[in-house]
Amino acid sequence: MLELRELRKAFGDRVALDGLSLTLEAGQLLGFVGANGAGKTTTMRIALGVLEPDAGDVLWDGRPATPADRASFGYLPEERGLYTRMRARAQLVHFARLHGRDAATAADAADAVLDRVGLADRADDRVEDLSLGNQQRVQLAAALVHDPACLILDEPFSGLDPVGVDLMSEVLRERAEAGVPVLFSSHQLELVEKLCDAVAIVSGGQVVTIGEVAGLPARYRELVRA
Ligand SMILES: Nc1ncnc2c1ncn2[C@@H]1O[C@H](COP(=O)(O)OP(=O)(O)OP(=O)(O)O)[C@@H](O)[C@H]1O
């Protein structure tokens, strides 16, 4: 279980997070929605340990998250982070090795995730030669290759075609069903409503509501405009 408690973060005089709290349970697929600049990316980066909060705590299974806990998380960043010159499979092997897997285990994991994201036949293509949607599938594979204990994805659906959206949805649901807590941000409210059990709405650096997803688009308009 991932718990974010009273996170605060300012960049100069711009307050990005203003006491944001959130609990993400094992096996929960939680949508994270809010207007541009509401604080979603900042929250995710703090959860991952990429960014330090000014105040507040990140707990994993009830205790302060350690670097080792964070290393077990999977992250799909908003500013995609692939080596575009590298071939897809080699890159995934590299990421698995960075997570401490031995060469044989890393190779098997890379093949398994490439297969899962439907790119087994493009394994030896350089990332830059893949379409943007397929690059995103490699990015998803990179988030999955070390079998993450918690999955955090920043706008994973942006730029995907309908087949890619279905694949991303299936993979996220599958990971949650396997007991992994999954948090992802999106501006596609209908998609979040269809896919998630719960949603957290962020506004002004706080979670203004968290709970059932039913009627999300209408509720969102009320809360975020208010
Ligand atoms: N590195 C930074 N330097 C200065 N300001 C920042 C930085 N990162 C974020 N901010 C500011 O913090 C606020 C929250 O930004 P954040 O990226 O977390 O929002 P978001 O909800 O992810 O938005 P979007 O939906 O547009 O991705 C914004 O006002 C943003 O301009």
Automatic annotation (TrEMBL):
Residues 2-226 form the ABC transporter domain. SUPFAM superfamilies: P-loop containing nucleoside triphosphate hydrolases. Keywords: ATP-binding, Nucleotide-binding, Transport. It holds the Pfam family ABC_tran. One of its GO terms (molecular function) is ATP binding. InterPro entries: AAA+_ATPase (IPR003593), ABC_transporter-like_ATP-bd (IPR003439), ABC_transporter-like_CS (IPR017871), P-loop_NTPase (IPR027417). SMART domains: AAA (SM00382). Belongs to the ABC transporter superfamily. This is ABC transporter ATP-binding protein. The lineage of its organism: Bacteria, Bacillati, Actinomycetota, Thermoleophilia, Solirubrobacterales.
